[in-house]
Amino acid sequence: MVVLPVQKTKERLFWEQWQEQFAQNEKASNTTKYLFLPEQVGKQKVSYQEKVRQWSSTILLLTCILLLLVPFREGKKLQSAMIKREKQLKMDFPEMIERFTLLVEAGLSVKGALRPDAPLCASVDDVRKEKKKIKSTMYMRK
Hints:
By secondary structure, the protein is mostly helical. The chain has helices at about 10-30, 55-105, 110-115, 125-140, and strands spanning about 40, 45.
């Protein structure tokens, strides 16, 4: 049986020569602060480049994504505010109807009961504050 050595490609031979020259340069530059890379391997000149990441395309892509997402977020906020307002109206509706009925039965006209300054438009908190105010003034008179 005959075993033949593996055929090396030109690229593989080039890199082996480069590694040999690199090792020689490394030994020669033990006393210096810099490491010199081989400038020529065999008859070929070698050049080196630093790979620089282009951030402009990444920033542009992220900006576009954000510009697309902002309106959706604002739409969600508006929708949640509308749902919250609708729930609040549903909760206040029975109390408003009760006040309206009370004002109409007390002698106010329908138009008068629906006026913006009518007691019907006052919120529950306003009525409670008014009651507390009246009670506090009553205690002060005594």
